[in-house]
Amino acid sequence: ILLMGVKQGEGFSEAEVEEARACFFALHTVAAYGYKRLEVEGDSLNLIRRLQSKDTPNNPLGFFISDILSLSSSFDSIVWQYIRREGNNVAHALAHLQPFECSVRVWSEGGPSAIHSLASTDMCKFIEISI
Fold it and tell me: Where is the RNase H type-1 domain (predicted)?
């Protein structure tokens, strides 16, 4: 893991908007750390398809997609990849990281040990799915 982070806050929108909010946070964070080539994985198939097709509906989700696509133009390359929920345990665990704090936490080294073991599990599942 090169970089991981979480932005927890109060309130909640519909799931797809929250997925888009998390994606925007991730892109903003990796840009600040100087990464230029990305593969973005998400378990919201609809969001990934919208990002791939650059579809920006006229609603709150569309505003996030527009911001994501605008920010994505600052990278040398970016690939949007759908991954099933059972292969995305790291993202789910980070989103629910305890203690819950209304704050931003980013780790460029180390990080919660439980996340590293989940990453190994996710990679094993990915390899099984890909073979």
Answer: 3-96
**Using an 8 Å Cβ cutoff, are 88 and 47 in contact?**
no
Q: Give the domain CATH number at 82.
A: 3.30.420.10
Residue 129's contacts (CB-CB under 8 Å, 6 or more residues apart) are 84, 87
Determine the Cα–Cα distance for residues 7 and 100; give it in Å rounded to an integer: 10
Written as six digits, the tokens of 22 are: 């998390």
Using alpha carbons, select from 18, 44, 21, 29 the residue that is nearest to residue 75.
29
Is position 59 within any domain?
A: yes
Q: How far apart are CA 129 and CA 16, in angstroms?
A: 24
